[in-house]
Specification:
Helix content is 42%, strand content 7%. With 304 residues, the chain is an alpha/beta fold. It is an enzyme of class 2 (transferase).
């Protein structure tokens, strides 16, 4: 099992993979990734709390910017170079477009595609005019502009499914790219279901993977600062961009944090179409894992 050697250039209204060109990794860097709306912010918050041993004033989202976001301010990139704590950066790139360094730890989060699309619909419906301006009008955009959100949730999902992630970016190949490298010793796949059903255990698993030793008396405060209620009540301690880009601030960005909200809207035929597509694109093992129907530790599935 190897990381892809020939990386693809990945550009769209949000991302530009060439922002990683020439990036100088440090020995203990951490990369936190996902397709989107799959636990990235919670994982960033958890890692920030692990690194800072529960410091409530450690603003994880600002300290770990989305590096391949094409309109990330230059000062945010410069600040990363000056950081003295252990660095952890966010990406939404597939593994096929992200540089690899064996010294770096890579964590990528996923969840069932129906839950992803449902969360993304609320995310899209709640953005501000400034968000559209940055996404669509910042020079250098590749591909079509980001359209307004379709208010019909079911149709939004079907368009997302049949267009492979549209109007965002490809979903199934993204999952597949990280699934293909899951057995590398410095790669961990995190399932959203594990984060929301047993955060204490998953937090310890992530800490062990990252080699972070946490004093036992620090665990309660770390977990408190990673709860949805605490994060929603303390937006200034999570990140500085929520109020500008989402109409309801962090309450729109971190919304329900639950699964299965699609169950009363999608038909049996819709679900069958999704499940058949997932199995066709990902294979049985990956589709089972993504759907949360088997072991949530991706390394429990054999490499092929």
């Amino acid at each position: 099992m190897e990381w892809p050697k020939e990386l693809t250039v990945y550009k769209n209204h949000h991302m530009d993979s060439t922002t990683w060109d020439g990036f100088k990794f440090r020995d203990d860097d951490i990369i936190v990734g996902s397709w989107a709306k799959s636990g990235t912010t919670l994982t960033q918050q958890l890692i920030g709390q692990l690194i800072s041993h529960g410091d409530p004033n450690f603003v994880s989202n600002d300290e770990s910017p989305w590096w391949d976001l094409r309109f990330l301010p230059a000062e945010a990139r410069e600040a990363v170079e000056k950081q003295t704590h252990r660095r952890f950066l966010k990406t939404h790139l597939p593994a096929t477009a992200l540089p690899y360094d064996p010294r770096v730890k890579y964590i990528c989060c996923y969840r069932d595609g129906r839950d992803v699309a449902w969360s993304m619909h609320h995310h899209h419906a709640s953005v501000t005019d400034l968000w559209y301006q940055l996404v669509n009008d910042t020079p250098g955009r590749v591909g079509p502009a980001m359209p307004p959100c379709n208010p019909d949730q079911r149709q939004y999902f079907l368009d997302w499914l049949r267009g492979d992630g549209q109007p965002w970016w490809p979903f199934f190949s993204h999952v597949q790219s990280w699934w293909n490298v899951r057995h590398l010793p410095n790669v961990m796949l995190v399932h959203f279901n594990a984060l929301i059903t047993d955060l204490p255990s998953e937090a310890r698993r992530i800490a062990a993977f990252l080699g972070i030793s946490v004093p036992e008396d620090k665990w309660p405060v770390i977990l408190e600062h990673c709860s949805k209620d605490w994060m929603r009540a303390n937006p200034d301690k999570i990140g500085s961009m929520f109020g500008a880009f989402w109409q309801g601030g962090i309450k729109d960005f971190i919304f329900k944090g639950t699964n299965g909200r699609w169950a009363d809207t999608l038909t049996a035929e819709d679900c069958a179409e999704y499940e058949a597509k997932a199995k066709q694109e990902l294979g049985a093992d990956c589709a089972t894992w993504l759907g949360g129907k088997g072991p949530l530790d991706a390394k429990a599935y054999p490499a092929k």
